[in-house]
Structures
1.
Amino acid sequence: WGYRLEKCRVKLYSLNRDQQWDDLGSGHISSAYVEHLQSVCLLVQSDSSDALILESKINSNTPYQRQQETLIVWSEAEGHGMALSFQDAEGCQQIWEDICRVQGKDPSVSITQDLLDESEDQFDDILETADVFDLPSCELGKLEDIDDFVTSILALPLPIHKERLALILENGDYIKNLLQLFRTCEDQGDTEGLHHLYEIIKAILFLNKTSLFEIMFSDECIMDVVGCLEYDPAMAQPKRHREFLTQHAKFKEVVPITDCELMQKIHQTYRVQYIHDILMPIPSMFEENFLSTLTTFIFLNKVEIVRMLHEDDNFLSEVFVQLRNETIDDDKQRELLFFFKEFCKFSQTLQPPNKDALFKTLTHLGILPVLKTVMSRKDLQIRSAATDILTYLVECSPSMIREFIMEEAQQSVDGNLFINLISEQMICDTDPELEGAIHLMGLLRALIHPENMLSTPSKCERSEFLNFFYKHCIQNFIAPLFAITSENICEGDNVVGADKNSPNNYQTAGLLSLILELLTFCVQHHTYYIKNYILSNDLLRRVLILMSSKHTFLTLSALRFMRGMIGLKDELYNCYIIKGNLFEPVVNAFLKNGTRYNMLNSAVIELFEYIRVENIRSLVIHIVEKFYKTLESIEYVQTFKGLKIRYDEEKEQQNQIRKNLHSILYSQILCRGIRVLEKKEKICIKEDSKEEEAVMPPLEDDFPDPYDKFMETKNPKENEDKVDLPKGTSSGSCKISSSPSAGGANEMSSQSSSSTVGLKNDPDDEEKDEGDEASPKKKPHLSS
């Protein structure tokens, strides 16, 4: 067993408690022997994180089903359905062969646990004992026996019994005969028989077999199946579901559909979805897996519908022609957008290559200019549907949307850009709960998220789009923040009033909170771009004005924005905060909150605790020097005392560094003076050598004074010792009696690690040093 990650790419789906397929992500699949499970497993490795998103043991008794050449479906032992959607049929065939090899099956079959493919030896004991599979004949008088039989088989633990029953029902017209009995019972008013038929049909659905669904959901049978499910014994009166489906549920064709197969598939999918959502009881925790195949049936129908519509060259073109028609009324346009919304929702079930191809087709047909036009309409339902469609497009291909926005900016004359229209719609949302604004804010976040931006050798989407965004767009969506924090609204950095344009207004505060949430996202992900914008516009000061709002959620949003900046530990941000004294609004809000133990109290303490733990020195010094006297009395947490300890440690460290630096600099200056004097000594020796050639050598007492000071020795042995640096004293230092020259004092040089130069702190000690020269250990030796 070996990995084949480079060949098999899949998308993984899981059936949740609501019987909906959840997308667990895409990756590469392989089959391999897993040692800790002692079995061959299916392994799916995520594309994004390289982590395993699936490790499923291939059990010998688990039914695996292959559908449409690129899909493998099965039920996990834990009671939930799983589906693997392959990018190509070849990869699906490879994994299917591995599954069949483990289970000992022929890879040509579409289901591994069909009864006809089971070995006779395995089930001889079951089949030969009693008459457990002696299904009663389909007669009116035996409905109770059929009910008891089917219900008892469904309760048996082994799947082989259900497989055998499904095979019997599939072969022949047993289900059609049951539905004929339903019509007879209904005509005769046989309530007891109708109740038995309800239980029988429900049990057949719970067998979870696609082959049975194909029979029951055919045009011939599906309405009778719905009729059987109307007669729930728990209900006093039957529900009129058939009446709703035939008379009240109207199929609307925004554009006529000429393909009969497509029309039949649409009707079937709607009715089966109705059965699943309305007629079938909510399964208990022990029955969650009973309808997994039904959900898969609906899922595959939706995939087929999207495929057929995509392949119809005329249908989508006609839809766009009508959408671009400015003369159509709002009702018609609303229906067209509702269709497109449902179409895009169905398209989420496609595999990535097919989905990409579909959305490229929609882009070529002009979906984005159409959405820009309809989002400007006054009708709320039209705008909402257009926003939902745009959401599907952004989730599928955000790069495609960004490319359109950039091209639009180059061609636009009036500056009316699509992305600015999104910001405007968000700002102008009239809903008190701002549901539309929240939706649009999520769109903006997806568009400016760096992680989904492409980077190639020829193009860097991140730098191009973010440069464009911060130059042309950011000021539009934060315009309310600038307007509300202007001098006309605020007095002394305090919010006044409670009108619509004040952060004390609930709806306005909610909008500002959304804006701050997006700005905090930018601080975390657009380090360079947002930093320039914050510093050039003094943005943090404006944001902190909102901390005086009466709405705590807005105060917390402002605090989160500042916390995001501090969390980057950027000294440029720290200097900006210190220079502007921007901790003052935070401290004021903290003190105003008093002794109340709430989220604001915790958030402010966490901010200061983070600064203490991370030891952000510049902020520690600033906070202690500016606010410690105010915060000193707060003792229920040790945060502020801890900041003071950090401050004292920092000051002590700075003092020690200052002393050490002073000592090092002084040593370097003196030693530089020594080297200058050594040079002068060499010059004097050379001059004396020249004079010796011409005249008699002078007496020892006639040597110049500098030479007397630096070259006198106590014994001949020391005169013979020649070293490059002064000889150390017993304490590891040398003492110099003469002062260095001014030129030498202005230069600094590094000293050898093997020698240490002592400092003379008091010039009055010079005479004492000269007196100590009698000691050989303290006398410097200079090289000639």
Note: The two ends are 81 Å apart (CA to CA).
2.
Amino acid sequence: MLYLRRGGQGARRLLLSLLLLVIWKAASSQVHYSVPEEAKHGTFVGRIAQDLGLELAELVPRLFRVASKGRGDLLEVNLQNGILFVNSRIDREELCGRSLECSIHLEVIVERPPQFFHVEVEVKDINDNPPVFREREQRLFIPESRLLGSHFPLEGAADADIGTNSLLTYTLSPSDYFSLDIQASDELSKSLALELRKVLDREETPELRLSLTATDGGKPELQGTVQLLITVLDVNDNAPVFSQAVYRVHLSEAIANGTLVTTLNASDADEGVNGEIAFFFGSDVPVNIRKNFNIDSGSGEITLLGKLDYEETKSYEIQVKAVDKGSPPMSNHCKVFVKVLDENDNAPELAVRSLSLPVGEDAPVGTVIAFVSVSDRDSSANGQVTCSLTPHAPFKLVSTFKNYYSLVLDSALDREKLSHYELVVTARDAGSPSLSATASVSVEVADVNDNAPTFAQPEYTVFVKENNPPGCHIFTVSAWDADAQENALVSYSLVERRVGERALSSYVSVHAESGRVFALQPLDHEELELLRFQVSARDAGVPPLGSAVTLQVFVLDENDHAPALLPPGAGAGGGELVWRAVGAGHVVAKVRAVDADSGYNAWLSYELLPAAGAARSPFRVGLYTGEISTTRALDEADAPRQRLVVLVKDHGEPALAVTATVLLSLVDSGQAPKASLRESSGTASAEAALLDVNVYLIIAICAVSSLLVLTLLLYLALRCSASPTEGACGPGKPVLVCSSAVGSWSYSQQRRQRVCSGEGPPKTDLMAFSPSLPPGPNMSEENEHPEENSKHSGNVSPSFKLCL
């Protein structure tokens, strides 16, 4: 464009002329087909793609489509082979009425580059409508005094077809008295009448029954029949006679209501009442004529009742009957032919079909925005239409075919300057006075997809208790995209990876639209303590852009495992030998148990259950060691066999427990065999080893719990110290206190810890940690809105979530 401006106006005009010439030659093609009405679905019409010079492979890429005025589902194009075929039933009489010409006008539109074609499909008439008489029976009253050769008008049949298919021939059933007389003309339909061939005698034949058959000229021929009931009368033997058989009138469609159309003149040779004439419309006059015209029965004046419309009906054929007042009455008929003259009373009609809305700001010059078609129902100069566009820049109208225009981009767009255009297309006819119509076209300038979705923070931490129900909502991620419309529609998905031997998608899922993260199955702390994965956010732009956020899901332990006894204390085992001579505090046996849980849930305590109805037992059990020892020196009053029941329970909520039964046999010093002595020494050494294992187990549980708390506090402190301006946070010395029913153990660590709240200065808090604490009342609300909770808590960078 810069080279053309420097080159001068001549080069630009030459280039524009060549462009318009190419568009006109490419878009002004016209193809004509014909198809018979009532053709079956799928009937071949024509190879439209081949006839328009289009390749079959480019029909879909160039967005080939067909549109038509009125009903658009009659014809369809198969994009695989380029064949135009019949899609639904075509009824020529319904589509065009009795018009001699009936065509379906199709508009074929392709893009890249844009082209426009006009296809005309002529609908051929077939003989699918039989002749129809308005009534099944026509009654005629004929006096016996009528002379031979007298004519008695009959109402003919109507055929909805055209051409040869509507050319009717009439036959009358054999009769000695009547023959059929047919009068035909070029412009009017055939006039039928019965001609009297034999003098009637009412006393001999008071009534005659004949049948009139109408046969059309189609192949095969179709017929319609009406019964003629003729009653022979006396006296009044002269029918009224019109001064002319046909009255011709030309009326402008703009004449006012009540205007006199014509005055009919008829005379009757009879005298008196038999010579008085009244005028009526024929019984076969359609409803639209009765609505638009009125006849005075006494004077024969026909006046206009409604408003004439040339575009709706160009002419009227009115059947008028003149009936005298004799007894019986006699009648005759004539026709009034009214031709309507056109006036410029219809404004042009505009139809805008948008193609490329909204328009990208990077659209090249010459891009087709919409197609505009204009029409005017008037004829001659009243129907000639021209189009104009305001404002002119940066668009213009290009004529592609008669009464068809393309709205194209004339100069480059700049969305930053203006993102919306309101265009007005004006169509004006050449009538006098001229009439016009306008149509508005809204053009939106769309942006390109240049912004990826972003998350508020790169990583979130979520706490979930194990044994959660399947489908539990554990977190909601949310990303924001700065683009508009579909470029800002964000969808979420998991970044798939393997977790051990299983896929990540078997553990969690994310809702594509809301970003809600769900646990698909119950999580097991003993199997999986930490699940780390990424959620991807991708917009709907072309090409799509995306980003990802990391979620750390910590699975918290619940007390879902009861203590398990270890042999030989698993149930009622074999008896233990105890010397009666042992003193107080002597360890005689040991109950061993383990718990698959962790933390408090795996911390076991032992309790000796009192025997029902028995004296106080001389034995006791260590609260955390499970060692059974004597509380006093044994004597002869103690039973030789002692049955002890030990309750082993953990510290979870609710606590789970199991019982162990220990059998002790009290023996004197001289009663114990040597083998028993060896076994006792071996048992004592084994119990000492188990005592050491139990102590180590308690130490390991405390160490693991302390390490977990220390890791979480250190992580929080590092994240909070990385963002010093995110809230009113100050240094503190948190103290971790773990308590139980029997005592407490504590752990403290000097560190900088930010505790952010909505009110007041930073505080140093005492933090109590207990895995079995009940959930807080607002925990579920925090899970639903992690972003809002982050804002209310001072915008601390790390995010924690607990799913209960």
Note: The chain has a mean pLDDT of 79.
3.
Amino acid sequence: MRRPPRLRGASSPWLAWRSLCATASAIPIPAAPPHQTDPLSAHFSNRPAARDPAVVENLTSTLRALFASSPSHPRAFTLLKSAAFDAGLAPGALVDAVLSAAAGPHSGSPVAAVHVSLLSRLLTSLSRAGRASAAADAYAHMVARGVVPDVKSRTDLLVTTARCSSARDALALFAEMRGRGDRVDAWMFDALMRACVKEGMLEDAVRLFDEMPGAEIEPDQRVYALVIAALCKLRDADRGLHLLGEMKEAGFETWDFTYRSVVDVLVKVGRMEEALRVKDEMLSAGKKMDVVLATILMHGYCLRGEVEKALDLFDETLANSILPTNVTYGTLIRGCDQAGMTQKVYVLYRQMRGQGLLPSSHEFGLVIKGLLCDKQWEDAVSLCVEMADSRLPDVFTYNGLIRWLCQQHKLREALNLFGKMKETGVKPSVVTYNSLLMGYCEKGCMDEAVKLYSEMPVEGFVPNVFTYTFLMKGYIKKKAFDKAYALLDEMKQNGVSCNEYTHNVLINGICMSDRIYEVDEMLKNFIGEGFVPTTMTYNSIINGFVKAGMMGSAFAMYQQMREKGIPANIVTYTSFIDGYCRTSCCDLALKMLNNVRRKGLQPDIAAYNALISGFCHEGNMSHALQFLVILLKDGLTPTSAVYTNFITGYKDLKMMKEASKFYESMIKEGIAADTVTYTTLIDGFSKDGNVAFALELYSEMMAKGNIPDDITFTALTHGLCRIGDIDGAKKLLDDMRRLDVCPNALIYNMLINGSLRDGKLQEAFQLHDEMLNRGIVPDDTTSDILAGQKSPEGQLC
């Protein structure tokens, strides 16, 4: 038979298909009818055309000729596949064509196995080509015609149904197969279980495994691995362990992944010893420790709080040339953070970066948090800015850092970071704005705070209760209580509910001002609006009266508190103890302390500190020391405030040697000195003439991250001016400018006086001008100093 010539440039699938038909059947291709103008490929351009009976008959006759030559003619599948994929015949038409061609004149005869195999191959081809709908149609048509495709092709159908549709649809199709009594095998269970695990249908995967014995099918290696993985994800550690043992007993090799799954679930449910035992079994079976297994075990140690063991394992993996991954470092960073090992967190981050890896935004936030805990805020800011372009710091990282800076009065740095945040495309949140508002309000910069507040709606942020509360606290600090109170009405107009904390801020604010007499009326108004006062509310009012020296009013409020059934606590009584100590009535404070004990309340560190402060203020250091012994016996740890009171007491007695001993004891006990402690020492040594040591303390406090305030600088300026070092005192102004600390009038008065004393009249007036430019109002002393210089008979203060 002569081979027909090759068609050049034939782009029509129909022409290729007709060529196959002609070659397979050796029947010449009939010429197209004279009236036909469309190409033959138009018959197969869409599904309706492919159902043309004439076209199907053409395929059927060609297949019949092939089957007549040989029932398993190799050209038959090629022709059928071309009709399906190139010509686009409908799946049902393909099945009908095969069955019609196979039946011949005896239409009722059973379908031969060879033709079932042909249809099975067709089903496999459609399934593996991802044509799930066509494969499903073909399968349905086969079943309707009494043909059951082989297991392999039905497995392919289940796989493509799960991949292109869903595992649930594949399960429904599988149920239909089993309902008809069609044979199934382990491959089908494997395919379905794999699809279920992939889609998170873990219970269905386990159910399929449990149905295998009923289908008289033994699980194979793949099925065991899948069901163990599903059980481990469901945290069913007991059954996962049991099936691992069953898998080994069946003689199957256990894969690394299966071992790791079991170790992982045991770690997560807190059974670390068993996890280590399974790890040992894995290594005994000839498997090797890898980074995934090592990371799982590190996570287990961290969950148990045994971070040191996790770090030891980390060092061991490095020694064995196992390179850690992002997940490994992330696990250790989180573990060290939980354990408070902040320095190690930073070390791990540096190792990670040295390896060319990046942490997640959350883990990077932990690194920043650790640096802040260690008071390495400059490193934290630098690191954040360094990684900003990589988008590693997210809004939570920025918010945490900005809030910390604002709390530490480093507003300039916080604002710079805010600018960097917006520059790199990280959108701020209402928390960001609230933190900056807090910073402005703490610094007393209310104009800037109000400007930022007005920007919030423009930027799409709705002020919340915290926004208003920060503004209220700012106004209260500036003694602009009417403005703070006016914000309450603005809150209500904007639909923001006032919470208990906001009410208490206003009550506490008026108590700390010189308008304490208005607090009773304010409380009545708040109660009328639905506010329910708490112990904290009354404690604020009582403390306010105590601080104002109005002990009678404090007791009256205490009586009101009791009448309303609101219980007093140790804070309430501590206020009274503090009040008696402030009015030099330490004997009454002792009686109140005994009363507290009779009520079954345990005095806290604040109560003892109030007594110690009172006795130190009176210069009765022996009594103060007795209470230090008592609080230690009660199991309490002295705070920096307690030590500072002793330092203050000895400073006032000009016993700086004893003050130094308390400072040294404080450091030895690991109690960090704060700004107040350092300021007290600097003031004491400056007045004692030891300005050099005062300057050493100043450098030390800066190195430890304690920011001096205007009182610290006042003490240092006074000391330097006393020894005639006016230039050194002026240099402190530069430090204040750098630290964003506003000088007070007293500092400028001392500098102006010192300059005049040295005969530097021009410098004195320059300082006066600088004072005015910075918005610092000169007081009477300033005028007296300058007036004394102008008058020939005037004497310098």
Note: The CA atoms of residues 749 and 782 lie 6 Å apart.
4.
Amino acid sequence: MEIEGRNDIDEDSESNRGSMWDLDQKLDQPMDEEAGKLKTIYREKKFSAILLLRLAFQSLGVVYGDLGTSPLYVFYNTFPKGISDPEDVIGALSLIIYSLTLIPLLKYVFIVCKANDNGQGGTLALYSLLCRHAKVKTIPNQHRTDEDLTTYSRSTFHEQSFAAKTKRWLENHAFRKTGLLILVLVGTCMVIGDGILTPAISVLSAAGGIKVNKPGMSGDVVIVVAVVILVCLFSMQHYGTDKVGWLFAPIVLLWFLLIGSIGIYNICKYDASVLKAFSPVYVYRYLKRGGRDGFMSLGGIMLSITGTEALFADLAHFPVSAIQLAFTVVVFPCLLLAYSGQAAYLVKNKEHVVDAFYRSIPESIYWPVFLIATAAAVVASQATISATFSIIKQAHAHGCFPRVKVVHTSKNFLGQIYVPDINWILMILCICVTAGFKNQSQIGNAYGTAVVIVMLVTTLLMVLIMILVWRCHWILVVLFTGLSLVVECTYFSAVLFKVDQGGWVPLVIAGAFLIVMYVWHYGTLKRYEFEMHSKVSMAWIVGLGPSLGLVRVPGIGLVYTELASGVPHIFSHFITNLPAIHSVVVFVCVKYLPVYTVPEEERFLVKRIGPKNFRMFRCVARYGYKDLHKKDDDFEKKLFDSLFLFVRLESMMDGCSDSDEYSLYGQQTQHSRDGLLNENGNTVGSVVDTTLSSIDSIVPVKVTTTVGSSGQASSQTEVDEVEFLHSCQDAGVVHIMGNTVVRARRESRFYKKIAVDYIYAFLRKICREHSVIFNVPHESLLNVGQVFYV
């Protein structure tokens, strides 16, 4: 369903290219005084309102499936030993009501969701937002030209402000940057844990309905049914949600309406007095009367807000206003009615707490509700699995996860991806959790631990967002942080008591993923530092002369490097060991920026290295963490198109012909393109945004060039060089890649040797090669090996 909504936005809101979901701007568009425009604005408002309702409906299936299936298992996990006093049910219901109000409604829907990175949510999106407002990125590959991107939004503040002081405090010490990264990775790993635990507890709870209606059935049959559903669910991931996504929203909407209606039925039939739980007095009475057991039961109550973290992670699909509308109109009231109805039933039937949801269903609609519950559990699982795939892709873009195969599952929506390796790992772990624990209680304890840690990480990141990005007053920051931490730390302390009862599972899973992510990031950082410190000086290159001391053979050599400036060490290693080099050499750097996407027209940054007769260039391909490499020849074709365009523009810059380097970054206007294409000899005026650069700096320069009869010499030079490049391309393109082996020094500590020589080496061995990522033919690939020690 979300695909259709996104396509409609593309067709009807072309002017809103930078912010696809910016409905609020349409709704708040100022009224013109002319009568004709008033009618147009009215129509736009009407269209926006209808579109908002449609997107709110679609968001139910993608965003709220996980939160909506919580009534399946909350009361059982709250009272695993049974209910001793009916008043405890009222107290637990009161806690659920205020937990739903404080965390999902107030904190996430109305505050945290506004802290999105151009519509992208999740901990890594918050980290990207922080990286743009402070230099906290641990891999220092940023450049001033990156800030000129249209998607590189950031705010500035006064040097003496509290935000500026906080920024300097973060930037001054490397261990603070590392600590921030580890905090983000912890939250990310816990969300991955959700991708394992959500399908386990949702599907197992839904499948448990079979045993309720058939009491003689063995519990092992329920496990088998749940495992079969999980295997089918993960096996169908390669089709993507594009094929079945249109079903999600109707299923979840029907689910919410059913549980809300059943709740009203149970309140009227059993005990309407449960509505007194809306008074916070019963929270105090419950905790006072329950003592330690009452406090520990908070771990079960917290499951009522699970799925809230997925709400923020799945934010990219819909505008904030649509998510707010869906939650306040449908999700929130239906959940309150569902929990109130179960509480009313349990007050009169304390012994049915194990299967409270299914026991409270009227017998006449039992099996239809069972089927819809199972379908809703599958939808909830699908949302968290898809979010896990996106998180893995984002982690890779930040240099925190090995290269894995990424498959596009939708031609219409680029964000829908499938990661086969991660999918099968999730399936195996999910089946192990389901079959190993065999009951909801222990899985619920594990689930609660993962969710509360994600919420704590989000709160801590929100502190920095409010200071650096929103520049809120410190009183508001303290108020938000204090209220959030009081609630979440209370829940966190409660789940700590259940670490030995299943709560250790997400800690082990997250610990394993954290080790993988941090070790990979450490190895990536050390490789970058090695290339930076060992790059070749420009003086040495110029000293070799135009032939570079070698035979220049026809063809183009693409030398892949992680450096966005300077000549990499592998190039010197190459030319000192081989007798020949290609006529044209292009150093290619693929760099990920802390933005969600880089527009195609701004993708490539082209520069010349050394004098013109050296025929050496650099091309930096810039990507956002949502951008994906397509497995086709587009990358190479666009790279050469940018190179040829650069040469043609350079020949027009007579006044800059003595420069060592030129740079072109995709900000050409349509006028400049028209000027380039018009070669009939007439005078053509063009304004081109280009940059005059050196090795260490790039200074933007606005150049106005007039091409006419007086520019025939430069035009001839341009044609000659472009023809030469085309002939070299026809002669053949060779991809030269560095095969760098990282080793720990002999005097290194044992844990560093384990991390570098074993874990990182193993990850490098099993991850995908760069040549596979870029679809480089084996006959055109040349690997240059080198070893360095850290």
Note: The chain has a mean pLDDT of 80.
